[in-house]
Amino acid sequence: MIYIARTQRVLLGYLMSSIILPHIIKKDFSMGFISYIQFAILVFLLAAFFIHYEFIMENDCLSYQMKFWTKPIYKKVIYPEQIIQLKFTTVGWATKGVIIRLKKGLNIRIFGFNPDEVLKDILNYGKEKNISITKSKYYLVLEKNDEISMTIKISRKKGSK
Length: 161
Prior knowledge:
Elements: E1 2-6, H1 9-26, H2 33-49, E2 51-57, E3 62-68, E4 71-78, E5 83-91, E6 95-102, E7 108-111, H3 118-128, E8 132-135, H4 137-160
Helix pairs in contact: 1-2
């Protein structure tokens, strides 16, 4: 199964506009030292606008890719023997995710991928391959809240029939 995540484009758009708008408002298009730094940051933000991430789950391995449009920038293929732990945690107030801790190399963070079943699939993968799984206290709270909201939705559907 293939899961895709994109950079937070609203935040990038806000940052780009905060660099461009002051020059447009002042009608000052001179290129001083600060303007060169701002131009470099603007190019970096524009490049980040086109980056997306792919996470591919297969039976025998996991694959994580960072792409600029269609060109791969970074690719990591992970086999179950390389995984130390799957750590389910939260980012911010209500975003659930998982950190794949590896024996060698950088850990892989899986947050904001679509479709949302990625966390369930990783959990099942970990159970199948006998990988250590931990869940943070806040993740367990969000998981319990999701279960409660699902039962409320189901009971509302049954009541409307």
